[in-house]
Design a protein that fits this description.
about 230 residues, 12 helices, about 75% helix
């Protein structure tokens, strides 16, 4: 078994470092909006999903219903189910049901990409531990920092969240015309739901769900990925 826990720890170091910086921002944002550090860390420990957690935090702050929260997470995190099905084909025979459940908890975009690219089979403890530690410890660091930093520093660092999303979206949007069109569509829809008289009355949770489904659905219909291209 070449892809065991030792190799997983090595491959997981850069992922853990990247997760630390992103989850640090999440921890700060959660505490700045009145959440206790313990709850922020618990969310990161039980979810391990960046986009889902940031969207879920918005749903919580808006006081939306549990139904909206569940639907929001379903739409945003549905891709992990497909990743789990794909990655299960690389599991070694020693990976039983209990291990599969643990792996399903720890699958993220980065872990899936690295694990799928490995030659041979993947063991049950491959590359989950360090990314989880990086994500949770980053949340803890950001949450604690928000409790001790002066207000003006916390306000300034709050801009980092928007900078992070811009840094994620702009490069692929500049490279791929299709991505750019989908991003612009999502921006237009979001702006419409914020300003238009009737649409602005819809709760924030359903706004996220509707905008995500419409923008992603339009992209899937207009710009399908051919099987031979994938």
């Amino acid at each position: 078994m070449q892809n065991n826990i030792k190799q997983g720890l090595k491959d997981g170091i850069p992922i853990a470092l990247g997760y630390f910086s992103v989850s640090f921002t999440f921890g700060m944002l959660a505490v700045n909006h009145g959440m206790k550090p313990f709850h922020a860390v618990l969310i990161s420990l039980l979810n391990l999903t960046s986009a889902g957690q940031f969207a879920g935090l918005n749903v919580i702050l808006a006081g939306s219903s549990l139904v909206e929260m569940a639907l929001t997470q379903l739409v945003i995190n549905m891709r992990y189910a497909l990743m789990s099905l794909s990655l299960s084909q690389k599991f070694a025979r020693s990976v039983h049901t209990g291990h599969r459940l643990a792996i399903a908890y720890g699958i993220t975009d980065e872990i899936f990409a690295v694990a799928s690219s490995k030659k041979g089979k993947v063991g049950q403890w491959y590359m989950i531990f360090l990314p989880v530690v990086g994500w949770v410890s980053g949340t803890l660091g950001g949450a604690v920092a928000s409790t001790i930093m002066p207000e003006f520093i916390r306000s300034a660092l709050g801009v980092a969240l928007y900078g992070m999303f811009v840094a994620i979206v702009i490069p692929p949007a500049k490279k791929e015309k299709n991505v750019c069109i989908v991003v612009i569509t999502a921006l237009i829809l979001s702006t419409g739901f914020y300003y238009l008289p009737l649409l602005c009355k819809i709760s924030d949770g359903f706004k996220i769900i509707i905008c995500t489904l419409l923008a992603a659905g339009m992209g899937a219909v207009l710009f399908p990925i051919r099987e031979e291209e994938s």
